[in-house]
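Service request form, structural biology core

Requester: graduate student, group of Dr. S.
Request type: structure prediction, single chain
Budget code: on file
Notes: please return the result as structure tokens.

Sequence provided:
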Amino acid sequence: MITDLENYFVGFVIGIRYRANFSIEDSLGEIVDKILYSKKSYFGPKKFPFVQNHVNSKVLVNQETNDKLTINNSNIVLDITFSDTFQKGDYDSIISKFNDEIIDGVMKKYKITEINRIGLVKRYLFDLEELANSFIDKTIGKTLEGVNDINLQFSKKFPTADGFVKEDIYDYTNAIFNIIKHSDAKELFMSIDYQKYFDPFLTNCDQMKFMDFSKSVDGFNTKNYLPWLNKNYLD
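Core staff response, request fulfilled:
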């Protein structure tokens, strides 16, 4: 039985999507300078030494770890794999600094509005041969012998509390599970992409309540995902 998911936590992705805002394209250089060179910047050049320029987007990159912070006219995405640069124990700090420097520091300053989705993907690597074998056996069954690899995705959608009780609010959440087991490996990779959709779109970034959202992701993984994993594949 797995008692603590954090033992297998290897990385995460934060994604915010908003209606295409073409005025952002004119400010991309200024935005990157603010992220990299503001006083005591958490996401500064030591974390992201390089900047890649693409059509209508800029990507702050650590080429050694492949960590990325992407900003374009409709998305902000932070993609982190734990290493010496960003460590697992830094997770709470990264979440807090993203809220302070990216949401409050960039989105609010540059008036990025009409937000329609926020997502947080948490990635886990289970180096447990028992779990890997059990997942294949209990998913494929005995009808196809010799199957040693699997790539499975499924999702669950449910309304939010506001969607239940507030008139003309149709917000909902969607949890996307992705599970991969390679034939030459004894480990199992799983990710849970927990997304919240806003209908109608949010008119300012404060309405996202990002810190509360991140806690709801942790709560879902602990209260829903972990029991499902244990009950179906490890009990």
